[in-house]
Amino acid sequence: MTSSRFQSLSDAQWELIAPLLPSNAGRRGHPFWDDRGKVEAIVYRYRTGIPWRDLPREQFGPWQTVWKRHRRYAEDGTWDKVLAALLARADADGKIDWTVSVDATINRAHQHATNTTRPEQDTGGEVESHESARGVRPQPAGRDA
Q1: Checking phi first, is residue 26 left (phi over 0); if not, alpha (psi -120 to 50) or beta?
Q2: pLDDT tens digits, residue range 110-122?
Q3: Its pTM surpasses 0.70
Q4: Does 76 reside within a domain?
Q5: What is the C-alpha to C-alpha distance for residues 90 and 44, in angstroms, rounded to an integer?
């Protein structure tokens, strides 16, 4: 059970993730601190669907810090490493069913839906379908002019 609505990860979940995050050893500049708080902020942001700027500052600190940490972890492959490790553990525990369902639905686009031109083939796309080439609306079939 979490202690607040802002804490998304249990202690057991955090123990799985923490060793996979980069350490401060050998890192130049301002060292990372409060890894759990920043990861909780990232999880909270994705769970609620709010913009980065709307992260509660009182609980998570400046949104820019959280965003920078997320971006760095995405760029250096940290999130990929975390996902791979969690998937491997879940698979080893038999918690993943690798059954795949394939749908053979075909969605076709109209010939004018593309933004490419085909000079070898006249598709009739220069003139709107409801107007004639001279800009006069065609009369419905069966009516006298």
Answers
A1: left
A2: 777 777 666 666 6
A3: no
A4: yes
A5: 22
